[in-house]
C-alpha cells in the first residue's frame, strides 16, 4: 500500500509540512517548517501531541469536501442530484473502480491511521518528558480517532487492512506493494473488534466532558461512536449475539449520564444549527473549523478548493435562486441579467446545486410540516430581496420598487402544497403578491428542469465568510446527542422492546413539536399529533425518523447500507437511482490501489461484481 507513506516516507525520516498546534477553537494552524527528523520526534511531548492533532485535522477530509459529501449523500432515499451534478455516478449507480470521490477517504485515511499507530504503540519508557497523565489522554484520543477512521472505511468498503505493512495496527515506515485484505471475512471480524477495543479504551480514559469552546474528544464522543459500532456490527455478517444489547447499554449510559458527560438536547431544534451557537451542548463532536481563518482551516483558496479539507456544506445543497426565472425583465435587448436577489448574499450561500431533496423526503418523510418543526428548521422555503453589497446598487433598488418590492421583502416563496401556490397566484388587485410563488409540482427534478429551485438545506448556512464564493468556516457536527436517542431506540426495538423505543423517540418528537412562538398548550397539542406508540416502531420507521432528525448530516448512505435497506428503499424513493444493483451495497476498492499491488491476481482483492 504505497500511498500509506504520504506522511511517513522511506527509512525512518519524516517530513511534516504543517501541524496544528492545538484543536482548541481559538487557536490557528501553525506552519512548522521541519525538514527531516526521525521518529524520535514523536517521543517528545510536542511531537506526540502534534501527531494526535494531525489525526484530528485529517478528519476534515471526511467531513465537508465534495468527495466526502458525495459518498454519503448521493444515491440515497433523501437526496438526488441537482442540475449541476446531473447523472452523478454515485447517484445513478454507474460506479466504477476509478470513481474519484472514493479516493477522498482512501488516499487520506490510511496514512493518518499509520501515524496514530506509531504513537499508540510507543511505550511509556520510550517517551521524553511526557507526563503519564498526558500520555494516557493522548493515547485515548488517538485510539478514538483510529477507530473513527476505520469506521469510515469499513462502512463504505467493507473489510480494510489492519496490517499496513509491519503487522496489524503497527506503524509502517517501509513502502510495500502488499494489500493485506484477505481473507475478507476474517478481516472484517478484526476490523470491528479493533474499533470496539479502541473505543472502549477511549471511554475509560478520555475526559468526561469536552471543553465548552472546543471539540476535543470526550467520553461522550467515544460512547456515542461505540454504540453505533456495536449496532452496525449487529447488522453485519460478523454479528455477535450481544451486539444489540451492548449498543443499547452504551447509548443509555450516555443518555442516563448526560449531566456527567456535559451533553443535553436543546429545547428548540432551530438552535442546534444556529450559526454562532456551534458549541452547544447537543453537539458531542464536530470537525473544528474557524470562521474566516483560511490558515487554521487548511484552505489555500476557499472559493475554488472544493476538495481537500474544505467544508462545502454551506454551498452544495442550495438551489438556483439566481436562475433565469428570477430575472426582472428577460425580454430586454440585451436580456436583463439582474435578478430578484442581487448577487450571492452570504446568508444564501453559493448556489452550486449539487444535492436536491427527493420527492419522498419532501412529501413523505416530512409529511407533517406543521406539527413537526424540523422541516421548517432544516430547509429554506423563502428567499428575501437581498444584495451581496452592503449598499445595494440603485438600479437594483429601483427595479425592486418598480414591481412593488423593497430590500427585505419576500422575493420568492416555495409553498408546501400546490393548492396554496394556486391560491396565492390567483390573487388579484390589491391582494396580488409581488413575489414569485412556486408549488411542489414546480420544484426542480431531473425530469422537470424548468425551475431550478427546490427546498434548500439551511443547517450549514455560513454568513461569517470573507467572500460570497467561499466555503464555510463553521465547525461541522459529526455526533449529536439526538442521534444517541435514535441509536438507543433502534437497539431497544431490535431487543424486542418497541415500547422503550417509542419512549426514546418521543423525547425527540416532543422537542420537534416546540416552536418558541407557541404556548405550552399548543406545544402539547402538536406533540400529541406526532407522538408514537410501540405499534409504530419498525426499522423503516426508525430510518424515517433518522431522516426527520438528521437530514443532510452526511451519514445516510452508510446508514442504509449497514442496515441492509439500501436496495429496498433507494429505488422506490429516488427515481434517479433505479440502476442500483446488489453489489452496490459496498464501494469498489479503487483501481489505483489494485494497480500498485505486486500480486497479479488482483481480482480476489476487489469487492464482488466490480
Provide a compact summary of the structure:
The protein is mainly alpha-helical and 610 residues long.
How does the major sheet shape up? 3 strands, mixed
- Count of strand segments: 13
- The structure class reads mainly alpha
Shape: globular
* Residue fraction in strands: 5-15%
Please, how many helices? 21
Oligomer: single chain
CATH topology of the domain at 2-206 and 588-605: Serine Threonine Protein Phosphatase 5, Tetratricopeptide repeat
**Alpha carbon gap, first and last residue:** 20 Å
User: What is the residue-averaged pLDDT?
Assistant: 92
Q: What's the CATH first level of the domain at 2-206 and 588-605?
A: Mainly Alpha
Radius of gyration: 25 Å
**Order of strands, widest sheet:** 9-10-11
- Percent helix among the residues? 25-40%
Return residue spans where pLDDT drops below 50 for at least 5 consecutive residues: 2-31
CATH architecture label name of the domain at 2-206 and 588-605: Alpha Horseshoe
Region (Disordered): 579-610
Keywords: Cell outer membrane, Membrane, Signal
Domain SusD-like N-terminal: 96-231
Pfam families: SusD-like_3 (PF14322), SusD_RagB (PF07980)
Amino acid at each position: 500500500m504505497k500511498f500509506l507513506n504520504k506522511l511517513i516516507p522511506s527509512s525512518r525520516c519524516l517530513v511534516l509540512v504543517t501541524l496544528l498546534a492545538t484543536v482548541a477553537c481559538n487557536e490557528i494552524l501553525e506552519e512548522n517548517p521541519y525538514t527531516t527528523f526521525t521518529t524520535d520526534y514523536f517521543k517528545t511531548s510536542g511531537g506526540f501531541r502534534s501527531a494526535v492533532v494531525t489525526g484530528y485535522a485529517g478528519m476534515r477530509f471526511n467531513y465537508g469536501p465534495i468527495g466526502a459529501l458525495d459518498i454519503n449523500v448521493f444515491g440515497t432515499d433523501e437526496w438526488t442530484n441537482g442540475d449541476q451534478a446531473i447523472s452523478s455516478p454515485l447517484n445513478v449507480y454507474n460506479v466504477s473502480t476509478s470513481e474519484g470521490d472514493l479516493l477522498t477517504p482512501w488516499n487520506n485515511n490510511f496514512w493518518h491511521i499509520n501515524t496514530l499507530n506509531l504513537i499508540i504503540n510507543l511505550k511509556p519508557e520510550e517517551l521524553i518528558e511526557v507526563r503519564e497523565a498526558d500520555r494516557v489522554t493522548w493515547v485515548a484520543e488517538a485510539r478514538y480517532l483510529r477507530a473513527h477512521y476505520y469506521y469510515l472505511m469499513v462502512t463504505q468498503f467493507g473489510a480494510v487492512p489492519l496490517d499496513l505493512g509491519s503487522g496489524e495496527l503497527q506503524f509502517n515506515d517501509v513502502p510495500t506493494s502488499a494489500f493485506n485484505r484477505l481473507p475478507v471475512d476474517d478481516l472484517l471480524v478484526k476490523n470491528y473488534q479493533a474499533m470496539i477495543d479502541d473505543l472502549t479504551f477511549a471511554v475509560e480514559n478520555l475526559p468526561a466532558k469536552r471543553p465548552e469552546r472546543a471539540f476535543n474528544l470526550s467520553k461522550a464522543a467515544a460512547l456515542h461512536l461505540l454504540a453505533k459500532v456495536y449496532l452496525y456490527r449487529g447488522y453485519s455478517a460478523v454479528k455477535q449475539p450481544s451486539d444489540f444489547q451492548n449498543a443499547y447499554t452504551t447509548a443509555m449510559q450516555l443518555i442516563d449520564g448526560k449531566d456527567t458527560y456535559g451533553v443535553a438536547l436543546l429545547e428548540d431544534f432551530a438552535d442546534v444549527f444556529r450559526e454562532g451557537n456551534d458549541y452547544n451542548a447537543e453537539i458531542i463532536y464536530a470537525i473544528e473549523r474557524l470562521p474566516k481563518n483560511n490558515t487554521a482551516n487548511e484552505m489555500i483558496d476557499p472559493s475554488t478548493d472544493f476538495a481537500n479539507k474544505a467544508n462545502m456544506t454551506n454551498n452544495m445543497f442550495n438551489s438556483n435562486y439566481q436562475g433565469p426565472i428570477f430575472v426582472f425583465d428577460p425580454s430586454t435587448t440585451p436580456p436583463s441579467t439582474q435578478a430578484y436577489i442581487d448577487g450571492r448574499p452570504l446568508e444564501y450561500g453559493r448556489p452550486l446545486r449539487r444535492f436536491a431533496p427527493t420527492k419522498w423526503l419532501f412529501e413523505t418523510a416530512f409529511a407533517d410540516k406543521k406539527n413537526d418543526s424540523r422541516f421548517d428548521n432544516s430547509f429554506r422555503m423563502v428567499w428575501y430581496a437581498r444584495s451581496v453589497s452592503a449598499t445595494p446598487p440603485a438600479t437594483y433598488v429601483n427595479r425592486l420598487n418598480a414591481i412593488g418590492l423593497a430590500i427585505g421583502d419576500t422575493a420568492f416563496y416555495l409553498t408546501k402544497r400546490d393548492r396554496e401556490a394556486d391560491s396565492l397566484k390567483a390573487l388579484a388587485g390589491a391582494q396580488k403578491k409581488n413575489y414569485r410563488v412556486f408549488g411542489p409540482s414546480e420544484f426542480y427534478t431531473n425530469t422537470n428542469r424548468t425551475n431550478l429551485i427546490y427546498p434548500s438545506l439551511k443547517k450549514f448556512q455560513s454568513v461569517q465568510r470573507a467572500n460570497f464564493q467561499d466555503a464555510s468556516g463553521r465547525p461541522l457536527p459529526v455526533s449529536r446527542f439526538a442521534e444517541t436517542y435514535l441509536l438507543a431506540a433502534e437497539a431497544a426495538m431490535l431487543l424486542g422492546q418497541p415500547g422503550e423505543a417509542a419512549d426514546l423517540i418521543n423525547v425527540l418528537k416532543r422537542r420537534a413539536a416546540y416552536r418558541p412562538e407557541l404556548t405550552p398548550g399548543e406545544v402539547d397539542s402538536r406533540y400529541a399529533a406526532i407522538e408514537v406508540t410501540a405499534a409504530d416502531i419498525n426499522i423503516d420507521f426508525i430510518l424515517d425518523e433518522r431522516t426527520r432528525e438528521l437530514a443532510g448530516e452526511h451519514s445516510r448512505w452508510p446508514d442504509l447500507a449497514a442496515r441492509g435497506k439500501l436496495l429496498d428503499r433507494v429505488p422506490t424513493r429516488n427515481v434517479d437511482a433505479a440502476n442500483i444493483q446488489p453489489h452496490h451495497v459496498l464501494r469498489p476498492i479503487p483501481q489505483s490501489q489494485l494497480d500498485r499491488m505486486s500480486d497479479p491476481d488482483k481480482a480476489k482483492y476487489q469487492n464482488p461484481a466490480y
